[in-house]
Amino acid sequence: MQTTEAAVSTAHGAAVVVDGGAASGHKLSVKQCRSGGQESQIGTVSQLLAGGIAGAVSKTCTAPLARLTILFQVQGMHSDAATLRKASLWHEGSRIVREEGFRAFWKGNLVTIAHRLPYSSISFYAFERYKNMLQLILGVENKSNLSADFCIRLIGGGLAGVTAASVTYPLDLVRTRLAAQRNAMYYRGIWHSLHTIRREEGALGLYKGLGITLLGVGPNLAISFSVYETARSYWHSHRPHDSTVLVSLTCGSISGIAASTVVFPFDLVRRRMQLEGAGGRARVYNTGIFGTLRHITKTEGLRGLYRGILPEYYKVVPSVGIVFMTYEKLKQLLSYIPES
C-alpha cells in the first residue's frame, strides 16, 4: 500500500522512505556503501533531499503501472460482473491510450511527487524522535543491545509511518481520485480537488480510508523489515562477497512482493473508501472497514480482494531498483557539499 507509505528504513543513520506498492509502500533498507572500510556521510538535509528525489524519480518511472493498479482496484465499485471478466492489463492499457492519450498514464503523478518530500521529511524526523524517546523509556543505549535496538527501530519506524501517513493523507486521497478519473474530469488538479472535497464532503472527507491505511502500517512494516533482514542475512551467510547493490535490490524486491501479497486487500479497501462519494456518486459501502471487506468478498469473491495485484507485482523490482540507485548516486554527489 502506499501506506502505506509507511515503511521507514534505517541503516547506519540513513533513512529512505519508499512507497509504492500495496501498503502505501515498499520498504528498502539502504545500506551506506563502504569503500575501504569508510562510510560516505551526508547531513540530514541532504539525506532528506536524496530520499525525496529518489522516491519522486521512482514514482514517475512506475506511474503507468501504479495507475493501472488503482484503476483495477476500483473497478468493482460501479462495474458489473461481465465488465470485470473482460478486464486485462492489455485491454485497460489500450483503452487509456485510445480514449485519454498516452500522457494519461501519469494522471495523479504530480500530487504523488508533491506528497514525497513532506512524507519523507516527516517520516525521517518522527523516526529519530520516536527512537530517542523509546531509548529513554526503555533505558537502552544505542547499539548496546541488538535485539532491543531492532525492536526500537521497528516500533519507531511504525510510529513514524503512522505519523507521516496521517499528516499527508489528504494528498494521498487526492492522488487516488485524480488517477481513478477516466474521461470525465470532475477534479482538475490538486488545489481544485482539495477545495471540492472540502466543500462537498466536509473536512473529514479528506480523511476517508485513513483507518484502513493505518491498520495496514504495522503488518506492512513488519513483513517488509523481517523478510528483508532474513533474506539479506541468509544471502550474506552463503555468498558474503556478492555486490551490496545486488543483495539490496534482490532482497528489497522479495520483501516488497511479500508485503504486497499480504496487505494488498487493505490497500484495495483503502482505495475504494477514498472514492466513496467522489464526484457526487452514490456511496457503495456503508458498513466500515470489515463490512467493506465482506461486501467485496461476497460480490466479487476472494479474487476481488486482489484485483490489480499483477501491475503491483510488476512495479516492485523497478521501483526498488530505481530508488536504491538514485539514492546512492545522489548521496555520492551530495557528500561533496558541506552542510552548515
UniProtKB/TrEMBL annotation:
Transmembrane parts of this sequence: 205-225, 245-266
Cellular component (GO) terms are: membrane
Which family does this protein fall into? Belongs to the mitochondrial carrier (TC 2.A.29) family.
User: Which cellular compartments is it found in?
Assistant: Membrane
| Any one GO biological process | transmembrane transport
Q: Provide the protein name.
A: Mitochondrial carrier protein
Primary place of residence? membrane
Tell me where the Solcar repeats sit in this chain.
42-133, 148-234, 243-333
A Pfam family reported for this protein in Swiss-Prot or TrEMBL:
Mito_carr
**PANTHER family with a match to the protein in the record:** SOLUTE CARRIER FAMILY 25
The record gives the membrane topology as: Multi-pass membrane protein
Which domain of life does the protein's organism represent?
Eukaryota
Keyword terms? Membrane, Repeat, Transmembrane, Transmembrane helix, Transport
Determine if Transmembrane is one of this entry's keywords. yes
